[in-house]
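Handout, section 3.2

Students often ask what a structure token actually looks like in practice. Rather than define it abstractly, here is a full record for Ankyrin repeat protein. The first block is the sequence as you would receive it.
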Amino acid sequence: MIRFLLSKGADPNLSDERGETPLITAVYGLSLESVSALLGAKADPYLETTSGINAAVLAADFCSIPILQILKDAGVDLNRLRERFISIFYRSG
């Protein structure tokens, strides 16, 4: 479904009132296929929700090594520090 919507021009960076993007939703659902498709469609992995969570931080909170690997393979800097100076590896430890 995600691939179909993206092929029809859906914006992978559109967010709701909580700042949740399709990528954040895909990480919540632990959907490897959706995460890959969205990153392939140029979803911004650094966009944060209104509570300051981004896709990598959420994946670390869920201890989802497969999603973290997909993010890393897509070029996401997993060592990038958040506003509060907490690296995602510190959060997942």
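Discussion prompt for tutorial groups: The two ends are 34 Å apart (CA to CA). How would you have guessed this from the sequence alone?
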